[in-house]
Structure formats: structure tokens, C-alpha cells
Amino acid sequence: MEDEVTAPPLPESVQCPVCSKGFKPSKINAHLDRCLQDDVGRCPSTMDEGRPPLKKPRVTTASPPPVPVTTANGTPTRGLRSTSSTVFSLFQNKKQNVSVQGERSPSFSEELQQPPPSSSSAVSRGVKRTAPGDIEPGQTDADPTMLPSPPSSQLTLVKTSTEAVPYRTFLTTDKPLAETLRPKTLEEYFGQNKVVGEHTLLRSLLESQDIPSLILWGPPGCGKTTLAHIIASKSKQKGTVRFVKLSATSASTSDVREVIKQAQNELRLCKRRTIMFIDEIHRFNKSQQDTFLPHVECGTVTLIGATTENPSFQVNSALLSRCRVLVLEKLSVEAMGSILQRAVVSLGVHVLGDGEQAGDLEEPPDDGAQLQVYIEQRALDTVAHLCDGDARAGLNGLQMALQARVGGAPSGRVVVQEKHVKEGLQRSHILYDKAGEEHFNCISALHKSMRGSHENASLYWLARMLEGGEDPLYVARRLVRFASEDVGLADPLALPQAVSAYQACHFIGMPECEVILAQCAVYLARAPKSVEVYKAYSNVKASLRTHKGPLPSVPLHLRNASTKLMRELGYAKGYKYNPAFSSPAEQEYLPEELRGVDFFTWTPSE
User: Fold this and answer.
1) pLDDT digits (tens, 9 = 90+) for 34-46
2) Global pTM?
3) Nearest to 524 by CA among 585, 454, 597, 598
4) 443, 434 in Cβ contact below 8 A?
């Protein structure tokens, strides 16, 4: 190029920030346009000379000093043009970003759902194919955008049709079976007909796509999260609702405020409402729950909270008044059976009836045929009973049993029996929360069973609490209270029996003290009952609380005369010392206003 200056730049020349060559000030702008539009790192001057392309410089933190740019008349411009390294990295990053977005190979999960790529399909998907020696300078062989696709033998094809999903897919999947088969419509949602059944309020609201703020309360695995997703899916059909999911175990108040801010912008600019689902909302404290109040009140967000704890204790009363509480019950055995049947149909597993035996099946030919998986109906029934109404535990236990049986069988026939699911789904705990509602429910059931003299029920509820991890001293204290409140004077030995049981539990602890508590519970259940003292004392308390005006003074003859002044004022004057009499002395012991009152028969209305 005749305009190029090969000698060191003269004062009247300007250096190109891309190719570092000197040019006349009148030519520099046209050169920059051509130089930047060409391949990165290849200057037109260097290509004309046939020299190899310049190596892409590394982007470093320390940049060379800026080079001043002068105009045609030699006066410097106001700004300083960046050096070649800075400008080079700027355009290089932009081009690489576009390349990554447009030429990135599909993810591995996408390849699992597609046939092995061919030469024609690669072009249609936009995958860049490079010939040997066509790698640009600065690009290594480990560039993820240039890696070849894995061979077809390494891909696991997943059927996208409505056919059953292959068994082996669930042997290597990262998701549990409960998450993979999560229902997406109300027709697939079992066990909560009282809440979302036909002609229910929530079902009508779903059909009209007008969902209020809700608090979903129920035990684990009853379908709270699934119902929230179904509600969101139903509401998003018209495209006027967005769904945001947060978990109170990991989200903070700042995360909630950010979602609320986005909801305000969506509602103002796009007229789109936001449904915010908060899982385990009881994990938020009272001040964190107050963050929702004004936004739920004005309709900025529709709140759906899921909790396993009683909302009366764990959710603010102000927030409860703005939401409707839906109680989801523990799944019945019949509902669990329907859920498990849907799972085995989706997996393509054959169910053996009660009359069928594994030995009645014909052996498949040993020629590498497809694996056939069977499961006994008794095994499904066992899962439905052992999961204790927890669909998540039941489906994941079924998956574990299938994985254990299918994993080592390349082909042939595999039968999952009842013993296999029992091993995969052992009941290692009982649903019991020492700090939650179940704690109060069980102790109330124990108290009322002993009051009703039902010794079998008393033992059952006692065992429910102890096996669930309840503190035995807490149970012993409740037995001491019961001995005085419900047995009372009908059996004066009941109280010493309960106190002895408490002391014994304190001495030896669990599990040895469980039989001591059982003995005391049975004794109290069989003992005669009398609430005479309990009711009389309750009447006295009611009399004190309902008394109008100042409380009556203690009579003078009952007062303590410990000083000379008190005796002179009449304290203890006229008091009759009962041991000095052969029979109880006749004198008044109640204040004048209460003379003649019998608290054993008195009622507060009197």
C-alpha cells in the first residue's frame, strides 16, 4: 500500500490502534473503517504484504499509555484514543460473544432428545464445522464451542412421545421420580378432592383464572408444591401472569423485595400479574412476613405460601386475614395407589395381579432382547401403606426398588417383589414434630384417652409420642398433672404414683423408662376419676375474676397479729383456736360478702 509508512512514525503520522502501523492523518479514518471490519487481528496492510496474521494480544490489567490522535491540520483531538490492546479486546469480546450465542453446540440434555447428528443436521442446527488448520489464532483445541459432538453410542435417547419412558433413563437421571412425574393438570392430581374437586370454590376460581392469595397447609408429600405449580400453569394460559418460586429456607428479605419490585414493573408496564410461591413460609419470622402485607393488600402480588406447620401459630394474623387457608389432608391409601399406578404406567412396568406369580411368566429368549420389568401388586400396596400418605416418599421408594433390580440386569425379565420395596422403603421415623401441632395433638389424645379410662388408646398415644422422639420428662409431667386434675381425691395414691414415675424417668432415661411411663398411664386410665377439686378451684378463680368493685378485706379475727399495734387494732381478736375445742369451732372464715357460698356447687353465673 503506497500510503503506508514503514519507517518509525513521524510526528505528522498517526498510529493505527489495531495494526500498530503509521498513516497520514487524512487516511487514518478510512483505514480504521476497513481495518476494524476485516477479520480480527488481520490488518489490510499486513494481508497485502502476504505476512502471517498478527497474534491476538492478551488482555492485561496494565494498559499502555494512550496514543493521541491528531486531525488533518495537526491539532490534537479532545479525547485520547485507546491503544491497540484495549480496542482489540473490545471488538474481540463482542465478536466472541456473538459467536458463542449463535454457534454454541446444543446442551447434552438437548442431544439426549435428538437423533445422532449427521453432516446435514449439523448445518441446520448452526453448529460450526472447522477444517484442519482453520482455528483462529489465540483459540485452543479445548474451546468448548469447537468440541466435536459425542458419538451416537454415548447418547441415551429419550422418547418424547406419549409412550412409556425406558427404565434405564431413571437409573442415570439426576431428578427423583417424584419430581419427574409431578402432575401438571388437575386431572393427574389425586387425593385432595375436598380442595380441588368438582364444584369446589378453588376449582371455580381456577377456571375463571382469578386466584386469591392462599396458604396451603398440610403434611409433607401431600401435594402443596404441585398444587401451586398447577395453579400457576392454569393462570399463565392467557399470558397475563408470571410465576416466581422462592424457598424461605434460602431466600432473604432482599430477594423478596426484588421480586416485588419486578412485580410492580410488570404490572405497570405490561399489565401482567405476578404469583409468588413461598415454600416453607413458616421459616420466615414475623418481621419478614410483614414484607408481604402492603403488596398482598393492594394486589401487586398474589401470594401462595406452603407450610407444614399450623398457620395459626407460624403465620402473622395480619397476613392470614389477607389470605385464604386451604387445608390439604394426608393422602389416603387409595390415593397413593392411584399415584403409584400412574407411575408404573409411565415407566412401562407391568403389574402382576394377586393371582399371578413370577414363575408363571415365560422366560424371554436370551438373545439380547429388551429388558422386561414386572412388579407385584402386593409390592405396590405395600408402598402405599408404608409411605404414610407421603407421595414423595412413596415414588422415590419405588424408584429405589426399581433401580436396585434393573441396574444389574442387561436383558431378560426382572420381577420386583414385596420384599424389595420393603427394603427400599423402610419406615425409619414416625410423622411427629416435637415443636409443632402434632406435639399438642398427641398429648391431647393421651390425656383424653386416660380420662375416658381407655387403657389401650392411652398406650397407643404414649408410644406415638415416645417413638416420635418426645422428651419422656415432658410426658411424665403431664401424667403428674392428670393424677391431680382428673383422678384427684377418688384415688389419692395416683399423685404419688405419677411423681414416682417422673423421678424414675429422670434417673434412668430412655429407652428404659418407657415401661415406667406405660405403667403409670395404665394405672391412671384404670383409676376412678374425680374432678371435684379441679372444678371447685376453677369456680374460685372465676369468682375472683368476675367480682365487681374492690376485693373484700380479710376478716379481723383471721388476720395475723404479730405486733402490739396490730393487736391494739383488733387483729386476731375473737379467733377460736380449733385444737382447743373437741369439735370444729363455729366461726366465719369467708369475707362477709361471700358467706354461705359453696364453690363445689357454685357456678360463675351466680
Assistant:
1) 777 664 444 444 4
2) 0.54
3) 454
4) no
